[in-house]
Amino acid sequence: MSTIRAAITGVNGYVPEYILTNEELSKMVDTTDKWIMERIGIKERHILREPKLGSSHLGAIAVEGLLKKTNTKPEDIDLLICATVTPDMQFPATANIISDKIGIRNAFSFDLNAGCSGFLYALNTASKYIESGLYKKVIVVGAEKMSSIVDYTDRSTCPIFGDGAGAILLEPTIENVGVIDSILRSDGVGRVHLHQKAGGSINPASHETVDAREHFIYQEGQAVFKWAVSKMADISVELMEKNNLNSEDLNWLVPHQANMRIIEATSRRMGIPNNKVMINIEKYGNTTAATLPLCLWEWEPKLKKGDNLILAAFGAGFTWGATYIKWAYNAN
Ligand code: UT7
Question: What is the pLDDT at residue 332?
């Protein structure tokens, strides 16, 4: 019997209209365009400013466009997984809300929280459903309204994050394309360095938690940076070795977009030149679970069937991982 693999057969992305520039940020906190560009590599980020709209709004637009692009009917979807750290509500799952908005009714759907590695974790989870032979059309969407948990009085975190969503369709194939291999890891010891202090069950919302500004991202930047640089590079090199890939075999590195210096350290270790690295951090900032599909969406016209891609991420948890994909189609 032939091996069933999960192939990405379509990709779509969406970012909200409003652009928050470094110039505007430098009027809100004590920072400069020069510092942000040199230390992080971000020029601007998109922000969902309309009130009462959350991550499901962004995710639903990305998924709706994906269905249109791939000529897929909502009723044919078997499963939708939403990777997010900024769900519309604590419960129900944002995946349920996106499915409802799009009319996906013959499916089950759930959220997956793995910080900035959320898309990679969800992609791998979804692949297993496809590889089982029981599921034929699975959507993975990374959707984040990071601006809902960013403290715009904290100069060490507010330049980093942006809002956006990216979605892919996975379908079975017996060709030698699709998701080939992955290595995923997590270590909860990292939670002290990157978390949201209040709003969960150990520290529910109260006047005190609001007054103490504990409903925002708390990050010890340098500690996270050190872990990210070593873990993202190590795991990507480990995946290359495991699959006998050298840098010439690789067509694209698709790295999580957290910091330009982390991206450069990873590509250097892998021996991948800059022109084979998908980088759009300058325009969108760190959109957490949406960075990888937003890259795939932007680079889709350049991707060719059979191209070798490594996707790599590191994020809160800590979580990290790398996935080897053979691209399944030529853009028309
Ligand atoms: O995707 C999830 C995973 N997250 C990450 O991968 C983020 C990893 N961390 C980073 O990307 C970097 O650590 C940051 C971008 C968060 C910070 O960059 P850094 O080079 O590590 O800066 P730092 O925290 O060591 O701060 C250096 C200096 C400090 O001033 P002093 O104490 O040396 O006087 C900060 O107060 O830079 C100052 N600083 C700023 N200055 C101007 C911090 N933020 C800013 C700012 N503008 N926005």
Answer: 72
